[in-house]
Write a structure and sequence with these properties.
Elements: H1 3-14, H2 23-53, H3 65-72, H4 77-90, H5 94-101, H6 107-120, H7 122-138, H8 141-155, H9 157-169, E1 172-177, E2 183-188, H10 191-204, H11 216-234, E3 249-250, H12 253-256, E4 265-267, E5 272-273, H13 275-283, E6 286-287, E7 290-292, E8 298-301, E9 305-306, H14 310-320, E10 335-339, E11 354-358, H15 359-367, E12 371-374, E13 380-383, H16 406-410
Antiparallel strand pairs: 1-2, 3-4, 4-5, 6-9, 7-8, 10-11, 12-13
This protein binds zinc ion (2 copies).
């Protein structure tokens, strides 16, 4: 080939001092180069089509075009298949070929249209070619795929249904745990199942706010856990082993009191968890006390009771209306009840010693060292741990202004039974 010409072109492009370019000029050059690459792709496709029809790969000792493309052209298997498909189908798409040759559409646009030929046949695609090219010039290849999917459905409804049923059969979900206790998720959902999950996650995903250090994918992970947690909290899931499904944590009093040398707590389905995490869970949970004998055999099992009883929970919802951490507006469904002085340390289970915190901010307090206390007129002060230099707030967090002091707010709970303080022995 005219390799000297190509070499000269590449050298010319390589020699340019790109550091001196403005951002606008740089952007324009990138677009220009991509268009040139697309145009070259068309010229490559033309040759590849001829090469495939002549079975030119045999001369190189390969048994298939794909294996030759993978080796000689250094392509990944899926990319090699795509290039072969474009080369094969572009020959029947004159308008698409012209548009790609002129750089009016991208190679990936052409690949989407060429794949449509494989799906519904050249005749149907040629009929829709003007509309497809118009869509290609105005949308990215992914959105163009939506248009070819519509064509596929109109031209071949039975095939589309069969494919949708096949996709549904291919669904799976792996949930596996590593040696360190982290869980890994991998799976595949059909279009409808994925859309249901995405809709639910979108609804539960918190919007970014100033000071939120989480990445988008961390917020998405939090949304998935929240989805499961809220479903468990509602208590409408069918019973398993005679009980409503729930997360079980087992911890000794010594662990909850963080006594030196105390063992970690146990979380069902998981590895041992820290005393801080156990204290957070214990802040608002259904608790059963089990008295162990000298050889650790259970000798007495107490009644199950909530550490934040339902009446107090209702009162907290009325008073707090959501997470009380400064700047947070998560609704009550997202929140745990939190004891400002933990009940294991003798803190009362009363309105004046509890408030609602969303799971994330509950974690801030128990595991990240933030301290909460009542400020003036029922506001809550969140004090950042000294070692956290780049947290959401500096120094003392601004208090959330609320309608009255903790004492006056207690009057809101007159319709509810004031719960007794809980103690462990
Ligand atoms: Zn708590
Ligand atoms: Zn919160």
């Amino acid at each position: 080939m005219r390799s000297e010409l190509v070499d000269a072109l590449v050298v010319h492009v390589a020699d340019e001092d790109i550091e001196r370019l403005t951002d606008t000029a740089l952007g324009e050059e990138i677009v220009e180069l991509r268009r040139a690459i697309d145009r070259f792709e068309f010229q490559c496709s033309r040759r590849l089509d001829l090469f495939a029809r002549r079975q030119g790969f045999l001369a190189f000792g390969f048994v298939s075009l794909i294996s030759w493309l993978r080796r000689a052209c250094r392509l990944m298997p899926g990319v090699a298949v795509q290039h072969a498909e474009v080369a094969r189908n572009l020959a029947s798409l004159p308008q698409t070929s012209t548009a790609l040759a002129a750089g009016e559409i991208g190679f990936h646009h052409a690949a989407v249209i060429a794949h449509s030929v494989t799906e519904v046949g050249a005749e149907a695609v040629v009929r829709h070619e003007p509309a497809l090219l118009e869509a290609a010039q105005n949308h990215d290849p992914r959105n163009l795929r939506h248009v070819t999917n519509v064509i596929r459905y109109c031209e071949d409804p039975d095939g589309t249904l069969a494919e949708a049923n096949d996709d549904y059969k291919r669904r799976y979900l792996h949930l596996s745990q590593s040696w360190h206790g982290m869980f890994y998720i991998e799976g595949r959902l059909d279009a409808e199942g994925g859309a249901v999950l995405q809709t639910a996650l979108n609804a539960l995903e918190e919007e970014w706010f100033v000071g939120d250090e989480r990445t988008g994918i961390q917020r998405r992970a939090d949304a998935l856990v929240e989805l499961a947690r809220q479903r468990l909290d509602v208590g409408t899931l069918p019973e398993v082993g005679g009980q409503k499904p729930h997360l079980a944590v087992t911890a000794s009093v010594a662990t909850l009191k963080k006594e030196p040398g105390a063992p970690p707590a146990d979380l069902e389905w998981s590895q041992p968890i820290t005393a801080d995490a156990a204290r957070r869970v214990a802040c608002d949970c259904a608790m059963t006390r089990v008295l162990l004998g000298p050889t650790s055999e259970p000798i007495d099992v107490g009644r199950c009771s909530r550490t934040i009883p339902p009446a107090l929970r209702r009162a907290l919802v009325v008073r707090d209306k959501g997470c009380r951490f400064p700047g947070c507006d998560r609704p009550p469904d997202w929140c745990d009840g939190h004891h400002l002085i933990h009940w294991i340390e003798g803190g009362e289970t009363s309105l004046s010693n509890t408030c609602l915190l969303c799971r994330r901010h509950h974690r801030f307090v128990h595991e990240l060292g933030w301290e909460l206390s009542w400020g003036a007129e029922g506001a809550i002060l969140a004090i950042k741990p000294w070692w956290l230099k780049n947290g959401a707030f500096s120094g003392v967090a601004p208090p959330l202004v609320s309608s009255g002091s903790p004492d006056s707010q207690e009057q809101l709970s007159t319709g509810a039974t004031q719960p007794p303080g809980l103690r462990t022995n």
